[in-house]
Amino acid sequence: MSLTAGVVAVQGDVEEHAAAIERAAQAHNYDVTVHEIRESGLVPDCDLLAMPGGESTTISRLIHSDGIAPEIRDHVDAGKPLLATCAGLIVASSDPNDDRVDELGLLDVAVERNAFGRQRDSFEAPLAVDGLADDEPYPAVFIRAPAIDDVESGDAEVLAAWDDRPVAVRQGPVVGTAFHPELTPDSRIHGLAFFENEAADVPTLEGAK
After folding, report:
1. Is position 86 annotated as part of the catalytic site?
2. Which residue out of 86, 103, 190, 196 is catalytically annotated?
3. Does any domain span residue 199?
4. Would 201 be classed as within a structural domain?
5. Average of per-residue pLDDT across 41-46
6. How confident is the model at residue 204 (pLDDT cuts 50, 70, 90)?
7. Would the pLDDT of 22 be above 70?
8. pLDDT > 60? residue 206
């Protein structure tokens, strides 16, 4: 079965996300074509969508000025899966704690920017993530990572925590992570977001296996 995926390509690890989507699709017996999204008009054709990290203020400004933001909201409203990572998580949140960010309000969470330190404080941590296909810890890469706050006041479900702070959440078809799942050969987070999320509307594999 063939799917169309998009990576919002205004900033961040676009090629790495595309490669991770391809690995996850292959592991789930899908064929996938990945498009880089830099202008409006492409998101409506996507079955899957990823919004990478980078600088949240820049991402927010560009997706709104280029007309991509309303298409992302429509994508999620249609039940299609979105994976938002690091700065993408900040933009997807309902409260970015930064007046410069025009948030999308797709996750009922507040975030704290750079909660685990600056660039020089980057680290990798073995995470226990709810919903992964096996019990092996996930090798999460944290780079200027935000933390997730106020989860209990909304509908977001915590999938993983580090240092007693939520770092991965799911709400309907949206999965948000404070870390960078594209920077590891382990594609299980992309698999969880796109192919193992029962709340997301992805064509089934019945007849495709």
Report:
1. yes
2. 86
3. no
4. no
5. 97
6. low
7. yes
8. no
Tens-place pLDDT, residues 181-195: 999 999 999 999 999
State the total domains in the chain. Answer: 1
What's the CATH number where 33 sits? 3.40.50.880
Summarize the confidence of residues 144-159 as an average pLDDT. Answer: 83
Q: What is the pLDDT of residue 30?
A: 95
DSSP codes joined into one string, the chain: -EEEEEEE-SSS-HHHHHHHHHHHHHHTT-EEEEEEE-STTSGGG-SEEEE--S-HHHHHHHHHHTT-HHHHHHHHHTT--EEEETHHHHHHEEE-S-TT------EEEEEETTTT--GGG-EEEEE--TT-SSSSPEEEEESS--EEE-GGGSS-EEEEEETTEEEEEEETTEEEESS-GGGSS--HHHHHHHTS-TTS-----TTT-
46 catalytically annotated: no
Q: Domain range holding 18? A: 2-194
Q: What does the block give as tokens for 75?
A: 């994508």
Catalytic residue among 22, 71, 103, 182: 182
> Once rounded to an integer, what is the mean pLDDT over residues 146-169?
87
182 is catalytic: yes
Q: Which residues pair with 48 in a beta bridge?
A: 5
Query: Residue 113: inside a domain, yes or no?
Result: yes
Q: Which of 17, 28, 75, 180 is catalytic?
A: 180
Tell me, yes or no, whether 83 lies in a domain. Answer: yes
